[in-house]
Design goal:
Helices cover 41% and strands 11% of the residues. The chain is an alpha/beta fold. The protein has an eight-stranded mixed β-sheet with strand order 3-2-1-4-6-7-10-12. It has a two-stranded antiparallel ribbon with strand order 5-11. Strand 6, helix 9 (200-211) and strand 7 form a beta-alpha-beta unit. Bound molecules: iron/sulfur cluster. Iron/sulfur cluster (SF4) is lined by residues 15, 17, 32-33, 35-36, 75, 77-78, 88-90.
């Protein structure tokens, strides 16, 4: 292992996260961060001290790999993102908290273990409690999905390795208790769900930091932005007391598209919530974190322009946007759409991509969507068939209608039927 100084932050595989971060999932898996491969957990939250969880053989090996600038399978997603030329979680955390945490790295033991854990950045997904059942989500991250699966599909949740409709890592409160001594050094917390604004541990954490006058902690959220009240608590009362609050609302469309895609949404209520936060807690930075998929790719450029026109987001301050491309379920990815349909969307995405008033990061994000739309070879008739079959089955279960909510997709369905006929004729 070479001498550790700040040059380590610029190496290919070093990452500060295993020294300063804690991440756990509702199913109790502990991972070095949310980008890490969830099939390769480094620990489990059951019956162990936090320091024990940070010193498993897997965690020690990961630290040693990083210190030696060797790659680790669990971190492949970061490397992939970097190859695309985009900033990874590894790079951004090295930049934000690398230098100030070097003393922790220097005290690493020869076997990769650590004697003390200074938690600076916290991201625990406490449970799958959620008031939505989004089309792209599933039982592991939404209790409503789990309930629907158990009730209507008469499904056995063990398929998802779940014992119950609600899964959580803190059901007896002991995980929170073990975490409490580490909360004093936290600089940033990321809340995501389930739905964090109706998760009890979210309020427990904020109460702890208020009692300890740690109101300069950065609070970052991914939320469906639908409900601000939980029992006797109102999250706005909390946000007013913290100086650094940043919201990434999971909004990918408006009107019937939003209501179909993220079942539970009432678009007018979401819009009222945006206005309310702007008025009552103006220091809260509001952004959206949309996922671009078959469901919303036709509407998104207009939706983004609508949010800008209404001044809900600021297109010049980092664009108010953290855009994701849907990869799961694969059959809802925009790349499988027929090219003839995609061609019509390209003009809209080009127009928005070339708007010089938008921040460069936004235009870059739109360029990624454009590239995907332009890939001619990726259309998949099988994928479209799977998409429509799944949608129609879910529609039946929920008494919803894809074509009533998103009539634009009728054209795609007709194209798929015609293409299937051609294939069948060729095969007969
Ligand atoms: S390299 Fe990436 S995946 Fe690995 S711990 Fe760091 S941020 Fe997480």
């Amino acid at each position: 292992m070479k001498t550790i100084d700040k040059t380590i932050l610029d190496t290919e595989y070093f990452c500060i996260m295993p020294w300063v971060h804690f991440h756990a999932l509702p199913n109790k898996k502990v991972l070095p961060c949310c980008m890490a491969d969830s099939d390769k957990p480094v620990s489990n939250v059951d019956n162990k001290s936090i320091l024990h969880m940070m010193n498993t053989d897997e965690y020690k090996k990961l630290r040693l790999n990083m210190l030696n600038n060797w790659p680790s399978d669990i971190c492949q997603r970061c490397y992939d993102v970097e190859k695309l030329g985009t900033w990874s979680l590894r790079q951004s955390n090295n930049a934000v908290r690398g230098e100030s945490s070097l003393n922790l790295v220097k005290s690493t033991k020869m076997d990769g273990g650590i004697d003390k854990f200074k938690l600076k950045y916290l991201d625990i997904r406490w449970s799958n409690i959620c008031n939505f059942k989004c089309r792209s989500c599933g039982p592991e991250f939404s209790s409503l999905h789990a309930k629907e699966y158990a009730d209507k599909k008469e499904g056995n949740l063990t398929v998802f390795k779940m014992e119950d409709i609600v899964v959580g890592n803190n059901k007896d409160g002991s995980f929170f208790e073990r975490m409490t001594p580490y909360l004093h050094h936290v600089e940033e917390v990321y809340f995501a769900g389930g739905e964090s604004l109706i998760t009890p541990e979210h309020y427990q954490l904020l109460d702890f930091w208020l009692e300890n006058e740690q109101t300069d902690i950065k609070l970052t959220y991914t939320t469906n932005f639908s409900v601000f009240k939980y029992k006797d608590k109102n999250v706005l009362d909390y946000w007013k007391k913290f100086s650094n609050v940043e919201i990434f609302a999971s909004l990918d469309g408006m009107g019937s598209v939003a209501e179909y895609l993220r079942s539970g949404t009432k678009w007018t209520e979401i819009e009222n919530n945006i206005k309310m936060v702007k008025e009552k807690a103006p220091h809260v930075k509001f952004h959206i974190t949309p996922t671009i998929s078959i469901w919303n790719v036709h509407q998104f450029p207009k939706f983004y322009e609508y949010l800008v026109d209404k001044r809900y987001i600021n297109p010049t301050y980092d664009g108010g946007l953290r855009l994701n491309m849907l990869t799961h379920p694969w059959y809802a990815s925009i790349q499988i759409l027929p090219y003839a349909y995609r061609k019509k969307l390209i003009a809209d995405w080009r127009r928005i991509r070339s708007n010089g008033n938008y921040d460069r990061s936004v235009r870059n994000a739109f360029a990624v969507v454009l590239e995907a739309l332009k890939t001619k070879q990726s259309t998949s008739i099988d994928g479209l068939e799977k998409f429509f079959d799944t949608e129609f089955a879910t529609d039946k279960m929920r008494s919803e209608s894809l074509f009533e909510s998103i009539p634009e997709l009728k054209e795609v369905y007709q194209w798929m039927q015609a293409a299937k006929e051609v294939v069948n004729k060729d095969n007969s």
